[in-house]
Amino acid sequence: MTDAIVVEGVRKRYGEKRALDGLDLVAARGTVHGVLGPNGAGKTTAVRIMATLLRADEGRVEIAGCDAARQPRELRRRIGLLGQHAAVDEELSGLQNLEMFGRLYHLGARHARVRADELLDRFGLADTGRKAVKQYSGGMRRRLDLAASLITEPEVLFLDEPTTGLDPRGRAEVWEAVRSLVGGGTTVLLTTQYLEEADQLADRISLIDHGKVIAEGTADDLKAKLGGDRIDVVVRDGAQLVRAARLLPGPGVDHDDVTVDADRRLASAPVADRMEALTRVVQALQEEGIEAEDIAVRRPTLDEVFLRLTGRTEDQDRMKEAV
Amino acid sequence: MSTTTGDTPMAVAEPGAGGSRIGWAVTDSWTMTRRELAHWARQPVQVFVGLAFPVMMLLMFNYLIGGGKGIQGDYAEFLVPGMFALTMVFGLDATMVAVTTDLNKGVVDRFRSMPMTNGAVLVGRSVADMLQSFASLIVMMGVGLTIGWRWHGSFAGVLGAVGLLMLLRFAMLWIGIYLAMVAGKPELVMAVQILVWPVGFLSNAFTVPQNMPDWLGAAVEWNPMSATGTAVRDLFDNDPGVLGTSWAAEHAGLLAVVWPVVLVGLFLPLAVRRFGALSK
User: Fold this and answer.
1) Coiled coil: which residue ranges (chain A) (predicted)?
2) CB-nearest partner of B279 from A53, A148, A184
């Protein structure tokens, strides 16, 4: 069976700026693929190109077996899109919106109405279906938007930061809806800035930055990239942080892999052997007269993978130079 | 997707080649027109304001701002047809606001990600705007009749005048759509909204060009809106006989057709291309 999403070497420029710089992405049918990256990494541009809203300057895009450049209409018949901003008509009611979209998918008037009622029901909007969308809460609007993306039961569903700007309850509602979709064969491509979201929902994750993929794999694969366990030391006196950080790397660990967080007075480094590292670091700190508030050995978080691969904050960079 | 019981199996009709594709184009355009009509039903106040605004202008100019110097006979006879033309020009503003609002919301993205006919969004807009302006024209004619305006020509002349006015509106429609897509932002819409006023007023809607300095009078006579104004006064037989003797004034009927056709010929392709270029 072919892959539902195939993106090869896609480039897109806006003047001098390279929004996408050779993006590659493959997602198997019936999986959730997370696209994770900081603001401006090119996530939205990528989704807009896959959904035929934008044309790629270079490269190949094939969604559900349709080429984006040559068969845009066939492609559109097989996808659903949930963009960052609610793509519904705010002046109309939820019912009117879904009916209109159903007609535009050429379901026919009667069929469009039946489908609209079904979807309102399924997304818990049956009671508010006749109210204007502008009176909806953020979560309700998102659910209506999602319902509109599902009118024709798309083979591939694009979700561009589906929970940005939602409160925790709204977020939970969207996650719930996404979970109920997968498994039945729909392929979901999800962009997000939230690591937790990718960790929770995605089978595989592509980390993108500056318009290209810098790491790809399952959440566990990506965590493993950091090299297993880490040791964290929180010092009492922030002035000693740099000195403490210098002590952390054991044999075979590169100084570049040490991270420091000045605000939390925290230094962290990968370790090869947990027990060896713990005793070595405790001893070294004592010898140097550095007082530690907390010392712990733990698994890396996806945040660290993200930070490590997309670059650190300025503050951390400066601290690292000192190390 | 796991199919919930009761979900309708989706058999999306596949528009084949040729005839059915045109059929879908018509269906999609109608769906988009219905969308605009549904907006009206949900915003009756806005619809009322839209209809009342030109009426207010007409009453203001007829009773408050005592124009009409140099106009022989009843000022209403002169003013009312000019206000018809002005109403059509001000429609540009309404079109532009509507298109800008749409483009700045995500809903156009959804339309563009669907297998619908590309141009249906624009066709829906234009049908709805033409209907609105037609309604506005009927209201204005009603108010005109109550303040003393009459047509003296044939019924065919009346139909011809309405036709020319709608043609002018059609030209304004495509200018409005194009400008909205070029400007894009609500702030720039404001600039155009302001600029519509001098363009609308630099016409023979309120007074005759003979009352103006020569250079200004010439500009006024060549304004497409003046051509329509003069032509419809002629067709309604409201001509007070002081509409000037320049080439533009004497060939107003011709210009009232040529101007809008040229403007549509220019701005319709530009607007359609711009809409297609949203994917650039």
Assistant:
1) none
2) A53
